[in-house]
Amino acid sequence: MEELLRISELKLNFNTEEGLVEALDGVNLSIKKGFFNGLIGETGCGKSITGLSILKLLDNNAIIEKGEILYNNKNLLGFSEKRMQKEIRGNEIAMIFQDAGSSLNPVFTVQKQLEEAVKMYRKASKKEYREIVIEELKKVSLPDVESLLKKYPHQLSGGMKQRVMIAMMLACKPALLIADEPTTALDVSVQAQFIQVLKNLKERFNMTFLYITHDLAVVNEICDFVSVMYAGRIVEDVSVRELFKNPLHPYTIKLVNSVLTAETRIEDLEEIPGSVPRLINPPKGCRFHPRCDEAMEICQEKIPELIEVNNNHFVACHNRLRGDDFGQ
Ligand SMILES: Nc1ncnc2c1ncn2[C@@H]1O[C@H](COP(=O)(O)OP(=O)(O)OP(=O)(O)O)[C@@H](O)[C@H]1O
Ligand code: SF4
Ligand SMILES: [Mg+2]
User: Fold this and answer.
1) How far is the CA of 280 from the centre of ligand 3 (A)?
2) What is the CATH code of the structural domain delimited by 3-92+174-321?
3) What tens digit of pLDDT does each residue of 240-281 get?
């Protein structure tokens, strides 16, 4: 399987008045070309920061301590701001931000915003720009495109804004689209339509997605592969099918057990006790140890590495590396 992007050992802190926030602690992530790659975890675990790191769109107080982000064998972390803007953002890698509505400029019409996006990578006449924009809006199944062009963001529903954002991203024809919680602002029926739009895009344009969410049901619905994140680290990396069949990390097992599926009875649901630790002075060793039923002494001291324990199934847990319990 071809890898489009790889994050290796990414360590990123934020300098704050309260202290150092150790947001990403050696993140390893592989994005497979032509697939939906999911990134799941509880709130505050570092999902958005991981996506923003790829595009180098981090806040000024971010410090990258170490790591690599390899894209086409080039380390993006070594790219200047100018080079990121010219060669990567938009035309190679684009992102739908967590709060898509606020990413649209309220003072410009839909037409103007999309034309500006297209101008970033294509030279064309005024008439041609308009045609390209209409074509992009049709691709995301937006109705009545002609009248939509004249509208301002506040005149659109949440679902429409989301689609305009996607049309903007598509206008840039990125090889990789990072979608950060793209469905949270949408109601359930619009969510289903939206997911269908993304699936169609992947089929038609062979695009690659990094799909960020806190919702395992959404991962099940759309993703091919998934990385499970906990408190700034990837703890499990596996195909979605295998994740539900044979979750191995104690955190993932609880996560999977907490999802209500058609086959799950309410009494089978498991609550995950405790909450995600603060990332200022996080727990030493395995960051999950204060919440883990299987924690051993070593877990409080040594960070478990992400290791392939089964074919293409990676887990970061001391208790799995010993090979005595593979959760089967
Ligand atoms: N500029 C910043 N300064 C300090 N801490 C920050 C900054 N930006 C993010 N963080 C912290 O980094 C951690 C990871 O944040 P991130 O936004 O990536 O979480 P997330 O997994 O996307 O959560 P959510 O599901 O709520 O969107 C959080 O603890 C957050 O408070
Ligand atoms: S390393 Fe230890 S604390 Fe962490 S998940 Fe595994 S058993 Fe639990
Ligand atoms: Mg987020």
Assistant:
1) 18
2) 3.40.50.300
3) 999 999 999 999 999 898 876 655 555 655 666 777 777 999
